[in-house]
Amino acid sequence: MKSIQKPIVIVGAGFAGMTFALNLKNLNPSLPILVVDSESNFIFKPLMYEVLSKEIRIWESTPKFANIFSDAGITFLKNYLTKISFKENILEFSDELKLSYQYLVICTGSIPNSFLIKGVDENCYFFNDIHDLNKLRYFLKKSQKNSLYKKLFIVGGGPSGIELACKIKDIFIDQFEINVVEKSNEILNRNKIFNREQAERALEKRKINVLLNSTVKEVSKNKIIISNEIGTTALDKDLVIWTAGVKPNLSYAGTDEITKKFGRIIVNNKFQIKNYKNCFAIGDISIIEGMEDLPITAQVAMQEGNHLAKNFELLIQGKDPLPFEFQDNGEMISLGIGEASISGLGFTLSGKLAFELRRLIYTSKLPDITESLKSASSWIFQKKAIFKKITKKDNSI
Ligand SMILES: Cc1cc2nc3c(=O)[nH]c(=O)nc-3n(C[C@H](O)[C@H](O)[C@H](O)COP(=O)(O)OP(=O)(O)OC[C@H]3O[C@@H](n4cnc5c(N)ncnc54)[C@H](O)[C@@H]3O)c2cc1C
Predict the structure, then answer these.
(1) Fewer Cβ atoms within 10 Å of its own Cβ: the N or the C terminal residue of the chain?
(2) 67 to each of 39, 62, 75, 372, how far by Cα in Å?
(3) Could you tell which of 35, 42, 45 is best to mutate to test the pocket of ligand 1, judged by most ligand atoms within 8 Å of the CB?
(4) Hey, which CATH number is domain 114-244, 3.30.70.260, 3.40.50.300, 3.40.630.10, 3.50.50.60?
(5) Hey, where are the domains in the chain?
């Protein structure tokens, strides 16, 4: 690696970018690092369901970037990346700022994918970031004052759809008739069998309808049009939450300069972008060439951020970087208020104990934030401290 003349620039401070920045600073405290994100706050996405159910408060899962990074001695800039000129090593931002870089790490995550289905963008709610969370919270709060049995459709029987369905049912009980629409023949089709079985039970217990082998054709203001083996039906709806898929958030990356697969940037097993060895892509936006496709999860993003930090340190020392290997540390899903299911890490567990353990594992991973917040009388930080004593930090999530 050439000697470092400019700060290492990281764009996107989610799970991948945050892990990379904090670990690199830890390994090499004198290294200048600049982190840029379009938001002011980190959002711990796996805890968004608990914010919705008020099991935790919003500020507990959304610490401020400025606090996290200033505590670590890292420079933070709030700005929105609009263009990368890979050949010239220049970044452009929405306020017309231009920044030249020597080494760049991009990790801007995913956005919902509506698959260009008519009416989805205009008439659906999403559940991917803090803005979606606030919008949905507002709608649900408003609905509480209105009549019962509103028709709610959740499109997508993956973890987000199932976790949301159970949580909303537990919060609002008879307020909503909940329907999960899934295009394949089972829910959680990419998840562990144990978690799927627990989720099926949780849905049944809550009388949540599951429409399998069903595809959404259109969503209008008052209707959702669903097609299955019986035919195509237009059903009345009050709310549709779209969790049917995500796509990489890469609006700033021109198509001619970088190669992509499934819309994600192809990188080698050291996360370098083809033809641009000084540029790295990690987290949801990238896909590793020659490796089995990894799940699009925070667990992967954090392991990648951690590995890239170690590789940077090796490069600085003039040593060869090491190829990335993913370690599957299991998966956890919440199944309503106070319940969860965990599979992996050498065991399976469901129910209340699994819920507590999931919460403890997540709180142990929340970024270390300011002393003032830590001293707040909140279970999240008390338990984080306890949990850190009883378990070593790993990258399971
Ligand atoms: C509701 C929900 C629950 C989830 N639960 C789990 C779970 O239980 N376990 C699990 O492993 N995974 C879970 N995931 C998936 C996980 O959150 C993602 O895989 C993970 O966040 C990806 O990390 P990332 O760093 O690639 O992207 P992100 O964490 O999304 O971070 C991307 C960052 O880039 C910033 N950004 C984007 N565009 C720009 C731009 N143009 N300029 C500047 N900044 C930009 C964003 O503001 C954001 O801070 C969940 C996701 C959701 C939505």
Answers:
(1) N
(2) 13, 11, 11, 10
(3) 45
(4) 3.50.50.60
(5) 8-38+79-111+247-316, 114-244, 331-390
Q: Which residues line ligand 1 (CB under 6 A)?
A: 11-17, 36-39, 45-46, 48, 80-81, 107-109, 127-128, 160, 249, 252, 283-284, 296-299, 301, 397
User: Quick one: which atom of ligand 1 is closest to the CA of 39?
Assistant: 47
Half-sphere exposure of 57 (CA within 13 A, CB side): 10
Fold of 8-38+79-111+247-316: FAD/NAD(P)-binding domain (3.50.50)
Fold: same for 8-38+79-111+247-316 and 114-244:
yes
Tens of each residue's pLDDT in the chain, 397 residues = 767 788 999 999 999 999 999 999 999 999 999 999 999 999 989 989 989 988 888 888 898 999 999 989 999 999 999 999 999 999 999 999 999 999 999 999 999 999 999 999 999 999 999 999 999 999 888 877 776 678 999 999 999 999 999 999 999 887 889 999 999 999 999 999 999 999 999 999 999 999 999 999 999 999 999 999 999 999 999 999 999 999 999 999 876 778 888 899 999 999 999 999 999 999 999 999 999 899 999 999 999 999 999 999 999 899 999 999 999 989 999 999 999 999 986 889 999 999 888 888 877 766 544 333 343 334 444 444 444 443 444 444 4
In 3D, which of 67, 90, 66 has the Cα closest to residue 76?
Answer: 66
Q: Which atom of ligand 1 is nearest to the CA of 305?
A: 25
Q: In angstroms, what is the span from residue 67 Cα to ligand 1's centroid?
A: 19
Amino acid at 200: E
- For residue 295, the ligand 1 atom closest to its alpha carbon is 19
Read off the pTM.
Answer: 0.91
Q: How many residues does the chain have?
A: 397
Pocket test for ligand 1, best of 108, 125, 136, 285 (most atoms within 8 A of CB): 108
Query: What is the distance in A from the centroid of ligand 1 to the CA of 103?
Result: 22
Q: Are strands 276-281 and 98-100 parallel, antiparallel or unpaired?
A: unpaired
